[in-house]
Amino acid sequence: MAIDIAKNFVVKAPRSAAWDFLTDPSRVVRCLPGAALTNQIDERTYAGTVTVKVGPVTASFKGTMRFERLDRESWTAEMVAAGQEVRGKGGADMRMTSQLVERTAGETEVTVTSQVNIVGVLAQFGRGMIQDVSDQLFQKFVDAARAELEPAASAGPGAVATATSAAAETAGAPPIDALSLGSAAVVRAAGRTARRLVSRILGR
Fold first, then answer.
1. Distances (CA, A) of 16 to 70, 75, 107
2. Taking the CB of residue 44, how many other CB atoms lie within 10 A of it?
3. pLDDT tens digits for 136-175?
4. What is the per-residue pLDDT across 42-89, written as a single tens digit (0 to 9) for each?
5. Residue 49's closest CA among 41, 59, 57, 134?
6. What is the b/e burial string over 152-184, where b = at least 16 CB atoms within 10 angstroms of the residue's CB?
7. 3-state secondary structure string, 107-124?
8. Which pLDDT band holds residue 14 (cuts at 50, 70, 90)?
């Protein structure tokens, strides 16, 4: 199952600071629930794991990610990632491009486009459910990224401690759960299934 994902967000930090953050996997992974780095293979390649819970199914993936292009002149980063479900029940691969645009002094817009392909255990839940979980995961990442970048940019009292605490909480969080974090996702998925059934009945 192939999915195209396009997202953007604004962070109140200089473009150079946002770039340094987004091209440092050790910092990024702290902002992703259920993700961890296990090894650095070479200058641009890293090994890691990610665990995602969709409904009653928890899937853990083990794989690698690699930066294919880091172009600071255009402020564009391209990376590829691939992983296999640790119990042999599927896999996933992704190509992601991130571009940074300085909107005003000290404010950066980040645009992320991804092409994701999922096979196996998670693919059974369909495009809608996967998209809902992706939206939740992205929002949690954005919140954690802002917590790390924006206090550092403003250099307010206790900024570093606050950012470190927020990132640590995210890093230690359990895998994202479509049921507990977004019951609406389950409702929407059920609604889509019901509509498909009605269409089939009426079409007979």
1. 13, 9, 10
2. 15
3. 888 999 999 999 999 755 554 444 444 444 444 444 444 4
4. 999 999 999 988 778 888 999 999 999 999 999 999 999 999 999 988
5. 59
6. bbeeeeebeebbeebbeebbeeebbbbeebbee
7. EEEEEEEEEEEEEECCHH
8. very high
- Name residues whose C-beta falls within 8 Å of residue 33's C-beta, 6 or more positions apart in sequence: 137, 140, 170, 173, 174, 175, 176
**Do the Cβ atoms of 139 and 8 come closer than 8 Å?**
no
Q: Beta partners for 5?
A: 114
Domains defined along the chain, listed by start: 2-203 (3.30.530.20)
pTM over cut 0.90: no
Angstrom CA distances, 39 to 42, 43, 63, stand at 9, 11, 10
Q: Where are the alpha helices (DSSP H) in the chain?
A: 15-22, 25-29, 126-154, 159-171, 183-203
Query: Are 92 and 83 in contact, with CB atoms under 8 Å apart?
Result: yes
Average pLDDT over residues 96-124: 91
Q: Is 184 helix (H, G, I), strand (E, B) or coil?
A: helix
- Between helices 15-22 and 126-154, what is the axis angle to 10°? 130
Q: What is the mean pLDDT of residues 119-137?
A: 83
Q: Rounded to an integer, what distance in angstroms lies between the CA atom of residue 197 and that of residue 204?
A: 11
- CB-based contacts of 155, cutoff 8 Å, min separation 6: none
DSSP bridge pairs for 49? 36, 62
